[in-house]
Amino acid sequence: MFGYSLTRPTHNQEYYYGIFDACEKFRCGIEGWHTESGPGVFEAALQFGEITQMADRAALFKLTVKSIASKFGITPCFMAKPRAGLPGNSGHMHVSLVDQKTGKNLFYRETEDKNPPYPDLRYLSDIGRHFLAGLLEGLPDIMPIVAPTVNSYKRLVENFWAPVTVSWGFEHRAASIRLIAPPTASAKATRFEVRVAGADANPYLVLGAILVLGWRGVEKKLEISVPPLGKGEDVGGASDKGARLAKSLKEATARFMAKDSVAREAFGDEFVEHFGGTREHEVRAWDEAVTDWEVKRYIETRTPTKSTSTKFSCPDAPNITIPIAMLPSKDEDKDAVAKWEQGVKGKKLVKWFDDQVHGFMAARGDLEDEKVKKQYEKAYNTLLHFFHENMQQWQSEVVYRGIDLLEVQKCGSQACLTKPVRSRFKRRSYLIATGFSPGPRNKVTDMAPFHDKHHLIKRPIAHKQNTASDRKDFNSSSSPSLACRLLAVDSSSTDPSLLRGIGLETSILFAHEGASVLLADISGPALERALKKLNELVPDPAGQIETTICDVSKESDVKAMVEKLDAWGGCDVIFNNAGIMHADDADAIDTPEKIWDLTQNINVKGVWFGSKHAVLSMRKHKKTKGSIINTASVVALVGSSAPQLAYTASKGAVLAMTRELAIVHAKEGFRFNALCPAPLNTPLLQDWLGDDAAKRHRREIHFPSGRFGEAIEQAQAVLFLASDESSFVNATDFVVDGGLTRAYVTAQGPPTQPPANLAR
Q1: Domain count across the chain
Q2: If 707 and its partner were Cys, which of 148, 446, 604, 751 is the partner (CB 3.0–4.6 Å)?
Q3: Would 440 be classed as within a structural domain?
Q4: Are 695 and 689 in contact (CB under 8 A)?
Q5: E-only strand ranges, 422-553
Q6: Which of 181, 52, 170 lies closest to 105, judged by CA?
Q7: Whole-model pTM?
Q8: Is there a single domain that holds both residue 20 and residue 150?
């Protein structure tokens, strides 16, 4: 739920307490904190003070909220209108004038005015009345200050409790200026609440503008030009006689910079020209922008198909080759259709079908309209009935942006439309009309050449095995992310069971978060099992999921593997996780040379080849950022009396290599980090430990938690290193070891409960 709530503030309490504590230390007191109208919306009332102090407090409060939020994976927003259909975020300012010598509120009238201009002003002083008149007269001319962005004017619209006219009212919460005074308030609390400013406004400029306009009214002894809003009346009602405030930044800036603008009189030409110029630049940028709303509403296109033409064995038009799609875009396709239509009876029918799709689908784009759906269904069924089995060979996909997917299923010799299905692309939907080829090719596919299949990685605050509907919440969050194609290079073992470790957990997690994943291994059976498990856990992935066989010790294999990502737009992230720890790996005396060479070829050369070709791919596709994550180990940081010399040396080499590559490629935007896991509860280690209880205990005792790590805990670290949330994390030995490398004597007692892996 949202709105005023007693229970919602109980969530994220540590975050709120962090804000309160920090603000208290900064002497930025928070007098009130409560939920507001809108999901996730809170109102904070800052402790009052003199004008420059309040501007400091408002700016410092915003900075504190944003800074503390980063520790909790929260992205706070002071945007004026972050969501359509809900009220926006405001920045109300409460102002009064106080005599510095006496401390008296200069807006309060000690004796009731028996003949005020309006009854609501009977306890407002002459200074207060002139101050209010100055605000009302100057407000339309300073709108770019209180509403400085294009988005600001999405908040200032009717029917959302926002002030949209030059208006005032006694205790009126819809007016631009709310008068708070006796008899409903104490004398010393007499003040004006200026409600036009948004949360996105600069508090220094807003408070300065309010003071200048108000005092201008006092000096000129201005009188109030509009009557108050009636009690209970909305803005725009019978009592609202004020002019409509600017509806856009462009309109507001033009009035702000006009030669006769109050802004020029109040602030001077130099400020108006400079600040107005910045707003004009903002308007030009907006005028040139193409929004998601426009793209969704106006683009229509046809996807590429596997072939460009096919033949119909129609008795009325033998041996006529026609284009694969009924709605051609190329001139040669149009010519082919024209020739085909000339030899086919029912030319009007074909043209009618064409018109139906173009006219109803593209122009109106409204599949909620039953008439449209029926017209389209009738046209499609008639067309398929006309061509009978000839249509079995027709393969085409026609995409219209802006309307939901319709699944077209085969119904005997005809086709019919069934229920709409949700597109896998969040906030985007498509209509796809498809013909049928023999076999299972009777499903709608998500093909759209104008939209790269880039998907955001979202760092989950608490992981769970989510369903497809749950995943929508991740994609609607606003945390910063990296559009990602992941190349996960896993174990070089031929044992399929070993793919149940870090590599598979990472692939599942990335797929779950919407990335396209290419999973590589030397073992075909291992990849088959991994893909099966991945499809079980992420049955409706937003990105593409593919596998490829690769021996990372061979550069030609690695090169071919990385080049597979060219079709996806190149490599964004590579996780070089392939590695072996051979049973014959011993100390310097007993380790066979062939075991040493095998270990270095896979653990070191494999990382080198993967890093090399990932960089080449990123350069080829002109990437400005990328993340290369190489699996090292804590054995590269600490010594062990249990010898595994080749493995330890290889992981030390990975650390050194990663560190150097990170420095070399930093200014290209490519980050290199080495993941350093402690011993994990994976098949690789558990098979090595076997049933040797003493061998197992010697390792478990060094963990402060009393247990081995889990693969999912490493996968979460990889997700972080891949995302934009780690954009300043580079050249690190990223240790995820439960404190093992920092421990000396660990506590007694039972181990902690491990998290559940995804591929359990």
Answers
A1: 4
A2: 751
A3: no
A4: yes
A5: 430-434, 485-489, 516-521, 545-549
A6: 181
A7: 0.45
A8: no
